[in-house]
Design goal:
It is a single chain. The protein is α+β, with helices and mostly antiparallel strands and 134 residues long. It is 28% helix and 36% strand. The chain has 5 helices and 6 strands, in the order βαβαβββααβα. The protein has a 6-stranded mixed β-sheet with strand order 2-5-4-3-1-6, with helices on both faces. A hairpin with a 5-residue loop joins β3 and β4. The protein is globular, with a radius of gyration of 14 Å. The two termini are 21 Å apart.
């Protein structure tokens, strides 16, 4: 199993919307590295749902339920989506400030590649986020 973090502006697509929808395809990715990360996702991988913008915090855990396929919002074959479903909301959102101040996140891609919308996490990083999030 692999672990990932996917960012979304809460006013574009929020954790609460994912919970309401019960499942969604993760679209709109137009960065090749983020796209490559999505292509590497496997069914059952876990994804930290991160609210970007003003919130800047991890808010939930989702699961990959369908691997990469053509993004239905574009005819350009370069872009893909994956399907996600919510698993659980974090009791305590984990802020970017907390991540920057917590031991174990020294090399986290969220800080090193802050503009990337879909990025890998190590198992240890994922477990720290889970612990901090309750």
């Amino acid at each position: 199993m692999n672990y990932w973090l996917a960012k979304s502006e809460p006013d574009v697509y929020s954790w609460d919307q994912l919970v309401q929808d019960k499942r969604t395809f993760w679209d709109g990715v137009r960065n090749y590295q983020a796209r490559n990360n999505m292509q590497a996702m496997a069914k059952g991988d876990l994804v930290v749902f991160y609210h970007s913008g003003e919130d800047r915090c991890c808010v939930g855990i989702a699961e990959v339920v369908k691997t990469a396929y053509q993004d239905p919002t574009t005819e350009d074959p370069a872009w893909v989506v994956v399907d996600l479903k919510p698993k659980r909301k974090l009791k305590n959102p984990v802020s970017l400030a907390t991540i920057k101040a917590t031991k174990g996140f020294e090399n986290i891609a969220l800080v090193k590649q802050g503009r990337l919308s879909v990025l890998p996490l190590t198992k240890a990083e994922f477990e720290i986020i889970e612990r901090l999030g309750g």
